[in-house]
Prior knowledge:
This protein is α/β, with parallel strands linked by helices.
Amino acid sequence: MSAESPRREFGERLSGKKPAVMFLLGILVLLATACGGQASDNSSNDSGKQETSGTRKQEATSAASSEKSVVEETTVGKTGDSGEAAELARAEVGRREISNMIPADRKKPDAAQPLPENPPNGIEVYPATTNRTVEGPIDYERHPPTNGDHDPLWQNCGFYEEPVEDRHAVHSLDHGVVWITYRPDLPEQQLETLRPYGDEDYVILSPHPGQDAPVTATSWRVQLQLNGANDPRLTHFVDQFRISELAPLSGNRCTLGVGNPEG
Length: 263
């Protein structure tokens, strides 16, 4: 055998194995590509999950922020809610108001009633001032007046066909009286509707020239303007604000003062 014979034989063997080797190399390349693609896909999925998770977190944060905003807005609305009942609930006897004077009849004052939780719509609540007794005419800010300094003598309760002095009526308000006033031109039929109030305890009924409303109900620091005698709020006002605890000398009665009411 010549020297070239082994070389030829080896070459023939190697040549016969080339397809198998190439086949194996192809499989390895395919596997590597598949692995790489899978890794790439997994990376892409993770990125998608992260983006989705981030989006959900942003949405949740936004929703929570919106919910908080709504809650805060609602709370502020409730906290800042103002109205007649809320204003009345904050009212109390002023620091400069005298509240320990002995009634003229030397008897124990009548028990005062607490301020209503559901007052009639339309009431006005005015700030406290002083309730000193002073001599002579007094210039009041409101007509009819609601509170302030007043005459040493109070107005007796009852129905009056003629106007009474403001300074006497204000002293009665200080005792817990409800003062119902009406314009002098009020129709007679409405006046007859009002007249029975003059028979009730702690009520003064009298005309008041120059007042804006046809009928006005006043207690110490609280006033309600009415369009007429038949307004159902009038009865509620009288019942709720007669002998009010807001009046510094509430329960001191309204007899033995000045005035001769109609029988």
